[in-house]
Design goal:
heterodimer, A: about 375 residues, alpha+beta, Rossmann fold, OB fold (Dihydrolipoamide Acetyltransferase, E2P), 2 domains, seven-stranded antiparallel β-sheet, 9 helices, about 25% helix, B: about 325 residues, mainly alpha, MetI-like fold, two-stranded antiparallel sheet, 14 helices, 2 strands, about 75% helix, flat
Chain lengths: ~375, ~325
């Protein structure tokens, strides 16, 4: 059934929503890619759900516009917008079977023949692996299956745009991955404009073609999952993504021997860089998995002491290191066994570093090896 | 272990010396306390006040009522009660006037509760859809005032309003050129006139119940139905009703039980007249018991009404359990 639905271009212009004195969404303007999955990712209360609900028409924006295919729909009711939506809690119509649930919205589509309707329902049941429970009363289904029915109901109608509001969040852990997998397969097959809201970065990384990172009502960064992860445009992105998030260590860029240089605490040698106007305070952001730990000192390593060690999911060891009086997190491969109190050496590769100014904005700099190395 | 024995006899000796005569009484107190502290006894003691209250005010009167219902007992003749077996019940079964009164009560219940339910649901839905309407709160408060009035007072107000010569309603009908109506003494109008007042009084209750019922519909389901573009009647049937029906049902049942017992309103407006056109069962009972003082006969009728009330309550409990059972089924699924 992929690609048969009308695919609309979705755009929001300077959209803003205030709840009393709280600004949930601050004048966001963006165009969503058609036939792709866009994830709105951010912590609770960042405005991502509000933004989605405004697209759906369930919330009226304080100002700004929502446009489908260039036509404003801001004043239209949700039912006039032709969207599909999956909610955080599985919403099913009670007293009906799974099949009847998926069929119900189709019954209002006058243009569709009875055969077309049941074919669409069958397709939706098939794509979500629901054929075994098609004729079961939805009241008897598990949360995960109910949510699958809700997803099937949204896609069977083939609306312009499909919105998903944290559909996996309230599903118990065992069936969560199963549902996530189903959604992933579904989004690959559908070629629909899908907007997916989540606070779970793994979910966003798996499902999204593009991630919109939101914080405090603003869109902080937009890009492919890899891009957003590797090159955070703002300190917030570095902190929010990753488990745990980036380390942030204050440094001072100083002019030494006529060159702007970064040094201690993270760099043993002077590390030259380009792109800054002069001496300034910066924040070095480096992911815990990018730090190299070794028992012996190397050319650019700094000494550190292990303050805390724990095993995390996946078997890696998560260390809290004290470097020059500051605490830095490091994630080392599975199999290593560092002990608390051990003295080690930490190497930070400038290529893995993102520099932020003191306000958290990304600084575009180019690191250059020391002149005598070249 | 080795230390207590030597000190123990000393202490016991000292105790017997100083409070010799008290010793057995204290052990009785200890025994009583031990008895009270037994879990079963303690639990019984805790519910005892409620049980005693229930027994004195419910069980004894009901048993007395059942007992009296087998006697020919009039308070005014001065004759001692005479046992007549099922005589009173026989009399009730063969009383045409009473059957008529039962039939009237049945139509009373169906008509009043029916109108109140339909109107209540309609008004409730209107209020539900007008969350942002200014003055909504004030309108709701005003709407609920009839319910807060004593039926007796409402009866007096409406008797005055219906009054043919000074009543405001007749003033309006005369002004509209419809002439004068004696609402409460006209055989064809009296029943409808009393029904109207009951509807006026109790429709707000059904509005309240409807609002509570609609409030129990999950918002997400309503939003999903909106997004899914379901027509309004399908939303009502597939989303609203499944959630709202239990509370609505309870409201209807409460109203039915209440309406079955209606006495005060009719008593004050028409006294059951003209003729017997508005005489409901509860009024018949009151008349026989406190106007004719025929306590045996009215006890028998009261017992029959009690059985009916128990039947209603059973239906009521069945409906309540229906919901619980469904929830349990959902939880186990």
């Amino acid at each position: 059934m992929g690609g048969t639905g009308a695919v609309a271009e979705l755009e929001v212009r300077k959209i803003r929503k205030e709840f009393g004195s709280l600004v949930a969404v601050r004048d966001a303007s963006l165009r969503f890619d058609s036939a792709r999955v866009t994830c709105l990712l951010g912590p609770s209360g960042c405005g991502k759900t509000t933004l989605m609900r405004m697209i759906a028409g369930l919330e009226t924006p304080t100002s700004g516009d929502v446009l489908f295919d260039g036509k404003p729909v801001t004043s239209l009711s949700p039912s006039a917008r032709d969207i599909g939506m999956v909610f955080q809690y599985p919403v099913v119509y009670q007293g009906l079977t799974a099949r009847q649930n998926i069929m119900l919205p189709l019954r209002s589509l006058r243009t569709l023949s009875a055969a077309d309707r049941s074919r669409r329902v069958d397709d939706a049941l098939a794509i979500l692996d629901l054929r075994d429970v098609a004729d079961t009363d939805v009241g008897r289904l598990t949360h995960a299956l109910k949510q699958k029915v809700a997803v099937a109901r949204a896609i069977a109608r083939q609306p312009h745009i499909i919105l998903m509001d944290e559909p996996v969040t309230n599903i118990d852990a065992t069936t969560k991955s199963q549902l996530k997998y189903a959604l992933r397969r579904l989004t690959r097959e559908l070629h629909q404009t899908i907007v997916y809201v989540t606070h779970d970065q793994t979910e966003a990384m798996t499902l999204a073609d593009e991630i919109l990172l939101m914080n405090e009502g603003e869109i902080v960064q937009r890009g492919s999952p890899r891009e957003v992860y590797n090159h955070p445009a703002h300190r917030f992105g570095g902190w929010f993504l990753g488990n745990p998030g980036m380390n942030f260590v204050s440094h001072r860029v100083e002019k030494r021997a006529g060159e702007l240089t970064l040094g201690r605490p993270l760099f043993a040698r002077d590390t030259h860089l380009h792109g800054l106007d002069g001496e300034t305070d910066v924040i070095v952001g480096v992911r815990p998995e990018s730090l190299a730990i070794a028992g012996t000192a190397s050319e650019n390593s700094v000494p550190a002491r292990i303050k805390h060690a724990a095993i995390v999911t996946g078997g890696q060891q998560l260390l809290a290191l004290e470097v020059d009086g500051r605490t830095v997190k490091a994630k080392v491969p599975a199999g290593s066994s560092y002990r608390i109190g051990e003295d080690v050496h930490v190497t930070c590769d400038p290529d893995d570093v993102t520099l932020f100014d003191t306000d958290g904005g990304k600084l575009e700099v180019i690191f250059r090896p020391k002149a005598d190395d070249a | 272990m080795p230390t207590p024995p030597p000190t123990d006899p000393n202490a016991a000796e000292g105790a017997t010396k100083s409070t010799g005569p008290d010793a057995p009484r204290r052990s009785l107190a200890v025994r009583v306390r031990r008895f009270i502290e037994r879990p079963r006894v303690f639990a019984l003691l805790l519910i005892a006040p409620a049980l005693i209250f229930f027994f004195v005010w419910n069980i004894i009167p009901v048993l007395t009522l059942i007992g009296v219902s087998f006697y020919n007992y009039s308070m005014v003749t001065g004759m001692p009660p005479r046992y007549i077996g099922l005589g009173n019940y026989e009399d009730i079964v063969y009383s045409f006037r009473l059957w008529e009164s039962f039939g009237r009560t049945l139509s009373w219940v169906v008509v009043t509760v029916g109108i109140e339910t339909v109107l209540g649901i309609a008004i409730g839905i209107l209020f539900w859809g007008s969350v942002r309407l200014p003055g909504r709160r004030l309108a709701l408060t005003l709407l609920f005032t009839p319910m807060l009035m004593t039926p007796l007072a409402a009866g007096i107000f409406f008797r005055l309003m219906y009054e043919p010569s000074i009543g405001i309603i007749n003033y309006v009908t005369r002004w509209a050129g419809l002439g004068t109506f004696s609402f409460l003494s006209d055989r064809s109008l009296a029943f409808a006139a009393v029904v109207f007042v009951d509807v006026w009084m109790w429709t707000p209750f059904m509005v309240l119940i409807t609002l509570a019922a609609l409030g129990s519909v999950p918002k997400a389901e309503l939003e999903a139905a909106e997004v899914d573009r379901l027509p309004w009647w399908r939303r009502l049937v597939t989303v609203v009703l499944p959630h709202a029906k239990f509370i609505l049902m309870i409201g209807i049942l409460l109203r039915t039980i209440e309406s079955f017992k209606t006495m005060d309103l009719v008593f004050n407006m028409t006294g059951g007249g003209p003729g017997t056109t508005t005489e409901l069962v509860a009024l018949t009972l009151w008349r026989r018991a406190f106007e004719a003082f025929n306590l045996g006969w009215s006890s028998a009728l009261a017992f029959i009404l009690l059985l009916m009330a128990i039947a209603f309550t059973s239906i009521f409990l069945f409906v309540l359990n229906l919901r619980r059972r469904q929830q349990e089924r959902e939880a186990s699924a």
